[in-house]
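1st attempt posting a full record on here, be nice pls
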Amino acid sequence: MKQILVFVLFAGLLCWLMFSPIYKHVLIVRQAVLQQEVDYLLEVGASGAYGYISEEMQEQSRQRIARFGMRAENITFELSTTSGLTASNPNIPLIRGTGISLTMSYPYEGLFDIDRLIGLTPPLPDERIKAFGKKMSEYVP
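the predicted structure (as tokens):
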């Protein structure tokens, strides 16, 4: 009986050790892709040519991220400004000096479920990977 228990515990630990680095790399890549996209959208949206991050820009961002194997419909965008104005209206671009904040998030999608084998509690299903950035608008009318 002891041998069976030791085998089960050892097999669980071995599985966790084998697959742990893989899903952690997936998490790191997803986080990096989100952060890269936040930086890109802020660079383009806060430039002197735009002064906003439109719904069309967000949709193009979703499509770029989907190429990395992430589900486009699960990506959420949260835009805010230091002036309280909307940052996604192309008809009213934000003038120079107005801060634009962008937060993108994506669900963990059960990446940490294997951690249950060693007794760790995975993140809740509604918890998300987040990337954040802030940049001042450079748009001059």
